[in-house]
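tool_call predict_complex ligand=DP6
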Amino acid sequence: MPPLRPVRASVPGKVLIAGGYVVLDPAYEGLVLAVSARFQTRVAPSILLSPSPSPSNPSPSLPPPVTVGSTERIVRVHVRSPQFTDGTWDYDVYGASEPPVVHLVELAGRENPFVAAAIRIVVLANLHRHGLAELKRRFGQGNGPRGSSLSAIQITCTADNAFYSQASAVEGLPREAVAPALRDMAPQAPLGLPMAEVPKTGLGSSAVLVTSLVAALAAYLLQAPAERDAVHRLAQLAHCLAQGKIGSGFDVAAACYGACLYRRWSPSPLADALAGWDALTAPSCFAQATHPAAWTHVATPLCMPRCLHLVLADVVHGADTRHMVRGVLAWRAAHPQDAAQLWQQLDAYNRAFGACLARLASLEAARAGDPQWPKDVDAAAASRYAPSAAPAAPLVPADPSVNAVAAAMTVNMAGIRLLWAELGQRSGVAVEPPAQTALLDHLQRTVPGLVAAGVPGAGGGDAIFGLVLGEAARDALDAALAAYPQLVIRLPVDVDARAGLGETDVGAGTAPAAMSEPAGGLCQTIEPLQEL
Ligand SMILES: Nc1ncnc2c1ncn2[C@@H]1O[C@H](COP(=O)(O)OP(=O)(O)O)[C@@H](O)[C@H]1O
Ligand SMILES: C[C@@](O)(CCOP(=O)(O)OP(=O)(O)O)CC(=O)O
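tool_result ok
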């Protein structure tokens, strides 16, 4: 058997700019952007390493058993997230074919449910499809260094800096030194802290971890790029099972497909599969859960106008999405009529906002090469887009000028924010807390070219986003954020110029920056075979 070639996959983080809460219902869409910050997973053959000690297990014992119950050991997996001081997990993966079961034993007793679920789902899919003997062969068993009968792989996960709060890196710096310090940080910089002590910024770290890991490991076992829809299904299953709740899945969808108008899948045909891993050992259940027909989501690609930039800022308070979702859904269940009306009104504004984005993109495409276009954008960016009164209705302008579309985007976002204020007041959940309202209103009043600003996703005290026309407006927004009396940390992201799951390099070298730019959608390249 030829040497197994390393593989890597990268995916973008997400930001839901319209559709929070309503997107949990398959009747309504969410508008999700993919951001330029990416998460990369590399899978490569490894030598067998001893398990690393952990605080709870300073001297993990070896050798672990070769069989557990009726299952056999398939492979050892060393997972490394070098940005964290405790980003080390060493698993022995056990499995059997009849029925196909997989479980993972972390050799020092550490936990990372998302890593474990991603590995487990890919191994399970391969067991269902190929059986145990073939799976061992695909992992290179018997092929290992010095004839070792147990093969090993190393999985390396690296995230762009924007995924995690960099508050500790800038702590104690004078305000004016914060932005330059963040700008000068090394890419994928070590955080110098255990994972649990680093707040996340809301770009969906678990979804990108799971999606890139599933894609990379599946491609490693195929030694060829994995099919994107299949990656989506497995990653979504693994994410749901690890998370123990059924989110809408917009984060996994954005990782796979990039910016999109997203309508979620219906949970009912998947209920058995989502009940737990045991159910997935039944071939009929696994076949149903991985059949395209069970996945009724729609991810319509969203073309972002190039003249529009995304600004995201970490407001360094943090928000508990689960808690907020529970509160909002409890109110919805208790007040179905009021909620139905509010959901429909929100949906109308969300859709109008999405239509304006599409209109701006097509306007831009139609004016490609027109020397007047950048001047029109600059002129439009000089305006302040602050709605003076509550909008009467969602607005998609007939007038195809940048100004008119930008003004309509402002109106529609104002409508969304007013309805969110109502939702917050009625449900008792602070979906746009007063501190964020003050910041957003201040920005909208003072920054020219800011066409929309809001709280992304579930809202709360996590982050704010702004959409600005042109680079000068982006700079103006940056300056306004830097001067704001409360600490607001700008995340180094814009919209993703590429889309979704990036190329899966098979046989690629170690340099993380060496990935080429896919043209859009899933783009996978197979590199020439490299001897290890
Ligand atoms: N770089 C990483 N390496 C390994 N696991 C990670 C990494 N980033 C995130 N995770 C996993 O994702 C979990 C965070 O998930 P969650 O709290 O749902 O945050 P998010 O909202 O960002 O997805 C972590 O506890 C860990 O299990
Ligand atoms: C409420 C939601 O519709 C949106 C939540 O979006 P966030 O971006 O806030 O999510 P997390 O990254 O998990 O914190 C729930 C959902 O759609 O799953």
